Amino acid sequence: MLAGAIPSIVQVLRAGSMEARENAAATLFSLSLLDENKIIIGASGAIPALVELLQNGSSRGKKDAATALFNLCIYLGNKGRAVRAGIISALLKMLTDSRNCMVDEALTILSVLASNQEAKAAIVKASTIPVLIDLLRTGLPRNKENAAAILLSLCKRDTENLACISRLGAVIPLTVLAKNGTERAKRKATSLLELLRKLQQL
Predict the structure, then answer these.
(1) Whole-model pTM above 0.85?
(2) Residue 84's closest CA among 111, 128, 121, 32?
(3) What is the mean pLDDT of residues 110-122?
(4) Contact 55, 93 (CB under 8 A)
(5) pLDDT tens per residue across span 139-154
(6) Residue-level pLDDT at 202
């Protein structure tokens, strides 16, 4: 029943008041928990409107847009839509704006996108790698973990990106993370260090 309302909800998301747009984003998040709805919502043009809310919404609107986009981008077919809607530059801005308290959300969405070839190319093109390496040095434990996971996705089967993180000094923060990070961070950092070692042997 609610799935049939998706076009109307997207219309509100595009053209409603800020409060109505926040509510529309929150509703789309709830609906996107069902896999078949991820496809319908993505095809309905919701993603560009959610990216717009992520960039220019109220703080609640941004949070609602971020949770909806995270869910929608789990579905492979929506990753490219999100990239074409400009999500990478929106996320990068969230990572580099010191007043932004949504670094965690931005990294979580990036980690879902980074497995997709189109998204991977856009992430690298937007000069996100130096920002991720900075987060390895200075981020909160969960941010470091997500930054390492994204870097690993970008560097798997990609010697150019691997050489880039080596040049930018990733080895020291990765070595620290492999010893002192969360369990997941240790695994990701160790895998990246292993790839870097192999690169030096080529």
Answers:
(1) yes
(2) 121
(3) 96
(4) yes
(5) 999 999 999 999 999 9
(6) 66
Query: What digits encode the pLDDT tens for the residues 122-139?
Result: 999 999 999 999 999 999
Which pLDDT score, from 0 to 100, does residue 98 have? 72
Buried/exposed code over 93-110 (b: 16+ C-beta within 10 A; e: otherwise): ebbeeeeeebbebbbbbb
- For residue 35, what are the CA distances in angstroms to 71, 73, 74? 9, 11, 9
CB atoms closer than 10 angstroms to residue 172: 10
Contacts of 79 (CB under 8 A, 6+ apart): 73, 112, 113, 116, 118, 119
Q: Are 106 and 94 in contact (CB under 8 A)?
A: yes
By the 8 A CB rule, do 130 and 93 touch? no
Pick from 114, 103, 102: which is nearest to 76 by CA?
Answer: 114
Q: Which of 130, 79, 135 is nearest to 103 (CA)?
A: 135
Q: Give burial (CB, 10 Å; 0-12/13-18/19+) of 200.
A: exposed
CA 23 to chain centre: 22
